[in-house]
Structure of Phosphoserine aminotransferase:
Amino acid sequence: MKKYNFNAGPSMLPREVIENTAKQILDFNGSGLSLMEISHRAKDFQPVVDEAVTLIKELLDIPEGYSVIFLGGGASLQFMQIPANFLIKKAAYLNTGTWAKKALKEAKLFGETVEVASSADANYSFIPKDYQIPADADYFHFTTNNTIYGTEIRKDPDSPVPLIADMSSDIMSRPVDVSKYTAIYAGAQKNMAMAGVTVIIVKDSELGKAPRPLPTMIDYRTHVEKGSMFNTPPVVPIYSLLETMRWVKAQGGVAEMDRRARERAEIVYGEIDRNKLFKGTAAVEDRSLMNLCFVMNEEYAELEKPFLDFATGRGMVGIKGHRSVGGFRASCYNAQTLEGVNALVQAMKDFEAEH
Ligand SMILES: *Cc1c(COP(=O)(O)O)cnc(C)c1O
């Protein structure tokens, strides 16, 4: 049976990315060696890193004065590495969910923090709008897409201070004005690559200002200066990242990714709102285009498990919601197809007809 991958992360990648990466794992550029066996310093691998950096800069229209680096440790390591490098006196954080809260927790280890707003009391079902960012903060940190709760900030917020964002689950799904940011980071396994690499975009002029000794590996300058080759980078994940960036470019870039995301979301949210069995969990104006969360309407609560089984029987994979929200989550990252969302919607319609 054909499977439709709605996993939240690691998640669906374009088929050709997987096939091309698989080929290089068997025989890297006709060298007779596997991508898994070559030195990261091999002359053939440097062009992989270089092209990946160039494509990221091109696709996100990154201005001069920014570096793109590839590290291990996931977005979770960035929760501490960001404040270690950029928190001088005070940092402002917006608490919109589990990941935002984790980022704030780590920042507290490095200095004064201000939680400008939180939607924790409403189980993070909306994005707070009325808040003041202190003008004397070093940066304003926010999570663009709340993977677990299905809310998203799809527009660079107005702020009196530079922005820093965790874009793990919606990077490359829309244009971004990078010039407003001191840093952008993303665990690549949602929208850019297989798991194992984190992409960090940093503004060079903001580096080296931290008033604390930084361990070599934590100082972004180490990795900027060595072109992500200070230590062994995750070679295979970086290769899959390159293939995904080539794919995004060939499809028409982030503007086209944005258009597709809107198209898919309209279809799925349209059905959630129409179907008598289901309702969305996030405030309508804050609905994520990447992670579409919905639950059974109260009177049909007992149909949750039966619908999960029904949809699974139709080939849907990974639609069970995160335990903190319950219900269902259809993750529709860049690689998600119209065929996939239409199959999900058809399953919702057919299940409704049976009940
Ligand atoms: C998945 C996710 C993370 C965690 O990423 P790791 O790479 O597993 O550390 C952080 N933030 C957001 C928004 C995520 O979606």
Observations:
- DSSP finds nine helices and 14 strands in the chain.
